[in-house]
Write a structure and sequence with these properties.
By secondary structure, this protein is mostly helical. It has 7 helices and no strands.
Length: 126
């Protein structure tokens, strides 16, 4: 006589998939093997676990995205993150270069071009 079939609640199974749980994690939740989960998917959906998981996982992504958008209304950090992800926004980095007078500029160029002085300066910095 064969063992009785393991009861796997379809709603719980789909919720676990939407939470991105792996096949092994789902099997552990239902206290069964990954093979049992695979057979359940074939019986209930007529597809392999990977196909069912992909479909049900996308429902979880929608839910996550909805939560992120709601959070962005109250959290500047989340709003900035979403702006960078979806709108191509970046942090603006501004740098200013102060003007230097021609004599100072010439002194710097002379210093940099004088290999011996530059080498002595580098040695002094060590």
């Amino acid at each position: 006589m064969a063992r009785p079939r393991k009861k796997i609640d379809k709603d719980y199974f789909e919720k676990l998939c939407s939470l991105q749980c792996t096949e092994e994690e789902i099997a552990a939740f239902f206290d069964c093997s990954a093979d049992t989960i695979e057979r359940f998917c074939q019986r209930e959906y007529g597809k392999r676990f990977a196909e069912v998981f992909k479909n049900k996982r996308d429902v979880g992504k929608i839910s996550l995205r909805r939560t992120q958008w709601k959070l962005a209304e109250k959290s500047p950090t989340m709003a900035i993150f979403l702006g960078k992800q979806f709108l191509g926004q970046t942090d603006k980095i501004e740098a200013t270069v102060a003007e230097i007078d021609p004599d100072t500029r010439q002194q710097i160029e002379d210093f940099l071009n004088d290999t011996e002085t530059t080498d002595d300066f580098i040695e002094d910095q060590k």
